[in-house]
Write a structure and sequence with these properties.
This protein is an alpha/beta fold and 322 residues long. The chain has two domains: 162 residues, Thiolase/Chalcone synthase (Peroxisomal Thiolase, Chain A, domain 1, 3-Layer(aba) Sandwich); 150 residues, Thiolase/Chalcone synthase (Peroxisomal Thiolase, Chain A, domain 1, 3-Layer(aba) Sandwich). The chain is built from eleven helices and 13 strands. The strands form four sheets. The protein has a five-stranded mixed β-sheet with strand order 1-7-6-4-5, sandwiched between helices. Strand 12 and strand 13 form a beta hairpin. The longest helix has 22 residues. The relative contact order is 0.18. The chain binds oxa(dethia)-CoA. The site of oxa(dethia)-CoA (UT7) has 20 residues, from helix 2, helix 6, helix 8 and strand 12. Oxa(dethia)-CoA binds next to helix 2, helix 6, helix 8 and strand 12.
Length: 322
């Protein structure tokens, strides 16, 4: 069952007009093609674990759970503090979660849906009672600030949710759907810094940045998010009419609208904050959950459909009675 949420974003805001001074772009182009108006960007000292710990602490407070009650901290991120150990271990220390297992899971923008699915599995099998699921990214650290096709899209942020045992009132994660296609890894990736291209070679060849084939990723995102949304609805005998709020991954307003159209949901039942944060990858859905709740758009008992798509490719959906 969902117990609480929290978010944390850097204070510093980078507007489309600020970007006009960095690359050859315009506020009009960015708003029309993506729906993004601004994004939050970390200063040099902030780490992913720090931002995630802030979001996690807020979620724990919201849930009324103390850090030592957590059995696991699961973090979706592609921009961890270090290659290893996991960012979850740094967060475990920062929160003082003395009884928790900690690990990262890498599913790019689908990260939060993936970690929440595993949180749910741990809880259902009795291996855990309370799990903190976090999606957090400092994408600004791996963005090529000379590439106008990508640098306008991404932002920094973290969002978190505390999951606990299902109540007897039907609230909780009702179903999840996850899929991947590794044939398309090259369309959206940061190729350097792993075992295939060393960090030194990557720096020399500018491979230590996000590389994306935008239009191809766009088409795959529309198809996959549509599939994820319709599959989980059909499997559960539901239609868009039964859903109180659609919370899609916030990458591009045109992808969000196409997903809503596939499940025949009007835009007033779709949560959108891509204008404020840009694409924060794994953080986008938990930030949206927290904002939707605090804005009164997502209330206890509401049925929400969460849908994500990201590099890998990975995609998925989740039905949650909040
Ligand atoms: O989180 C999941 C992963 N990411 C995504 O879901 C992103 C998916 N892709 C997209 O959202 C879109 O493909 C973009 C927003 C990245 C690009 O929009 P598009 O409508 O697909 O534009 P495009 O790449 O086809 O480029 C159209 C034109 C090109 O100029 P020409 O060749 O027509 O003269 C680009 O060079 O727009 C140009 N362009 C820009 N112009 C101004 C590309 N980036 C910019 C820019 N400012 N920032």
């Amino acid at each position: 069952m969902f117990l609480g949420s929290g978010k944390a974003v850097p204070e510093r805001v980078l507007t489309n007009h600020d970007l006009e001074k960095i690359v050859d772009t315009s506020d009009e182009w960015i708003r029309e093609r993506t729906g993004i108006e601004r994004r939050h960007i970390a200063d040099d000292k902030l780490t992913t674990s720090e931002l995630c710990a802030r979001a996690g602490a807020a979620a724990l407070q919201d849930a009324g759970i103390t850090a030592d009650q957590l059995d696991a901290i699961l973090v979706g991120t592609v921009t961890g503090d270090a290659k290893f150990p996991s960012t979850a271990c740094y967060i475990q220390d920062k929160l003082g979660a003395s009884n928790a297992a900690a690990m990262d899971l890498q599913a790019a923008c689908s990260g939060f849906l993936y970690v929440s699915t595993f949180a749910d599995s741990l809880i259902r099998t009795g291996k855990a009672r309370y799990v903190l699921a976090i999606g957090g990214e400092l994408l600004s650290r791996i963005v090529d600030w000379t590439d106008r096709a990508t640098c306008i899209l991404f932002g920094d942020g973290a969002g978190a949710a505390v999951w606990g045992p299902a109540g007897d009132d039907g609230r909780g994660i009702i179903d999840t759907f996850m899929k991947s296609n590794g044939k398309l890894t090259d369309l959206l990736h940061m190729p350097g810094g792993g075992t295939s291209i060393s960090m030194q070679d990557a720096i020399n060849a500018r491979m230590n940045y996000i590389k994306m084939q935008g239009p191809e990723v766009f088409k795959a995102a529309v198809t996959s998010m549509g599939e994820a949304a319709t599959t989980i609805l059909e499997k559960n005998g539901l239609t868009g009419d039964d859903i109180d709020l659609l919370i899609p991954h916030q990458a591009n307003i045109r992808i969000i609208k196409a997903t809503a159209k596939r499940v025949k949901m009007p835009m007033d039942k779709v949560f959108v904050n891509v204008n404020e944060f840009g694409n924060t990858s794994a953080a986008s859905i938990p930030i949206a959950i927290d904002e939707a709740r605090k804005a009164g758009r997502l209330k206890e008992g509401d049925l929400a459909l969460l849908v994500a798509f990201g590099g890998g490719f990975t995609w998925g959906s989740m039905l949650v009675r909040f």
